[in-house]
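Justification of resources, computational component.

The compute hours requested in this renewal are based largely on the per-chain cost of generating structure records like the one below. Each record pairs the submitted sequence with a full structure-token output. That output is archived, and it is also reused by downstream analysis tasks.
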Amino acid sequence: MSALYELQGVVQRYRGQAVLTIPELVIPRGRWTALVGANGAGKSTLLRLLALVEQPSEGEIRFAGVRAREVGRTLRRRIGWVMQQPYLLQGSALDNVLLGLKLHGVERRLRRRLALAALEEVGFGADPEQPAAQLSGGQRQLVALARCLALKPEVLLLDEPFNHLDVEARRRLEGLLLRLVREQGISLVISSHDRSFALADEVVALASGRPVTAPLTNAVAENFYS
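The structure output for this chain reads:
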């Protein structure tokens, strides 16, 4: 199993205070890795580092064998990241997905079909033309995920994606994520504090910004709902 991310001696500080300390961590390629822990444990901070939108205060992160500070634009585009509180632009749900495709240079004639397919894939059941400002929290999460998936990332980083979703929407999304990992080989890293971590191949437990011995490793993904 090859390494997707390798972290060595990573410390992240904000205003001089260490909020995350990772002596060593390897995240494998093509697996579902769950980051678990209470609020404030460091999950979101770790995801920002993995998304390469921040550099650590100390230590080294390698992505696909390349030092994070040296990762170029092409390699960065392999990473899709959806924040816990996703930012949507003005316009409709569909507009938000279309814009991502436009910025990535997708041909205009293909954009609408790809955007609608992505919204359908994530289970967005509302009118695609509905203004983003009128969407619920759960709908906003799904639009942000569709915007990300439309770009066909190889790595998917999700911060608490099940927040604001009802039971049925959560089940659909869990099934989709399993298919993406099992059938398409996407590497998934997801932060969560609920039952969904039981679907993961790997569990990284965090407490007070440090890795701790994981309370559970998963062997029940196929039978979780049986």
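Helices lie at 43-50, 73-76, 93-103, 108-121, 137-149, 167-184. Residues 216-226 have pLDDT under 50 and may be disordered.
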